Amino acid sequence: MLIFSITSWKICRSFGLILPHTLRIILRNLERRPLKALFSILGIGMGVSVLIVGSFMLDAINYIMDYQFRIAQRQDVILTFVEPSSARATHDARHLPGVLRSEPFRALPVRMRYGHRHERTSIMGLPKPNTLFRLIDDQEREVAIPERGLLLSSKLAELIAAVPGDLVTVEILEGERKVQKVPVAALITEFSGMNAYMSLDALRRMLQEGDTSTGVFLQVDLTRINDLYRTLKETPRVVGITIKSAMLESFQSSVAENLLRMRTFNILFATIIAFGVVYNSARISLSERRRELSTLRVIGFTRTEISSILLGELGVLTAAALPVGSALGYCFAWLATFGLNTEIYRIPLVVEMRTFAYANLVVLVAVLVSGLIVRRRLDKLDLIAVLKSKE
């Protein structure tokens, strides 16, 4: 604010003959009361920041859905078998109605240890190449499955404090419950759960199994999905069927309902903040400068000019508050991601430009409405009563 005051003072001194007299009055008044201007800017900016924090969740969830269901997971259907099955089950799944491509996987429950830390999770063995279930790093680049070694989700690696190159202990929680030492090859990014991955062949060698699998990823012709579903209902070996489109639709509908409710409260709350700050600031300014504005009106200033002095001051404060509020909102959203970083799910920091535009627009509307109310009070100013001196 000190820099702003010095700058405005220099402008008024250097360009006093060029600037309109109303603008000179506005700048001079802001210069005289820098703390009041600062708190008004922060108050209006808080309204913007509340809207950004409430709306960035939608951006983050849209990103997660695109990342998880379009970039990483490209299968249409996931079949899960009752128990680890032979290569025949994979062969049969490949010839189901409407199946275009299939890739087997082997899920293995384990307890993973590194040092004194341990977590219960699962290792998923994936074939090479794997096109239906891809593994992605934090730069959205595909991570190739190594010949040996584990790919850990970043959250799992964080919890057991392991980094690529470390040798972790894997306690297998089925069959003979063997214990193996396996190196960490790389880290991948996931927004739900804590999983580990390795080559399907390497996992089979570690278990000393043949061509076994616990499920199959399927890419299917969606026009024949009903035929596929009817056939699977009659297949006793299949214990679980996950249709990605149905799961995505259910997820979107439940999230959309909750987010709509949350955004409604955020809009209401932020509008109240912005309206309250602007309206109270304008009311206080009108009360404090009532005599000054009335004097200007008496000596020849029009109603428009008088209104432009008061409302122009609000406009300058709002113009300064919008970028401040946008920056605060981004910082608050960044802080919120730490509270949403759990073992079950993680929310990335994704704030789209439309979210900033939406937050600024809502606050601008609130400022405009409060300005119009103050303008009506200004038009009804009783010049005689204001200028009358008490005996």
Q: What is the mean predicted local confidence, pLDDT?
A: 81
Roughly what fraction of the amino acids lie in strands?
15-25%
CA radius of gyration is: 32 Å
Task: Classify the helix fraction into a percent range.
Answer: 55-70%
Question: Between the first and last Cα atoms, what is the distance in angstroms?
Answer: 41 Å
- Tell how many strands the DSSP assignment holds: 9
Strand/helix succession: HHHEHEEEHEEEHEHEHHHHH
Number of helices: 12
Low-confidence stretches: none
- Counting helices, strands and paired strands, the structural category is alpha+beta
The largest pleated sheet is described as: 6 strands, mixed, barrel
Key features of this structure:
6-stranded mixed β-barrel; 56% helix; 391 residues; alpha+beta; 2 domains
Overview of this protein structure:
- The chain has 391 residues and is α+β, with helices and mostly antiparallel strands.
- It is built from 12 helices and 9 strands.
- The protein folds into 2 domains: 203 residues, no CATH class; 122 residues, no CATH class.
- Helices cover 56% and strands 19% of the residues.
- It has a 6-stranded mixed beta barrel with strand order 2-3-7-4-6-5.
- It is elongated and about 100 Å long.
- The mean pLDDT is 81.
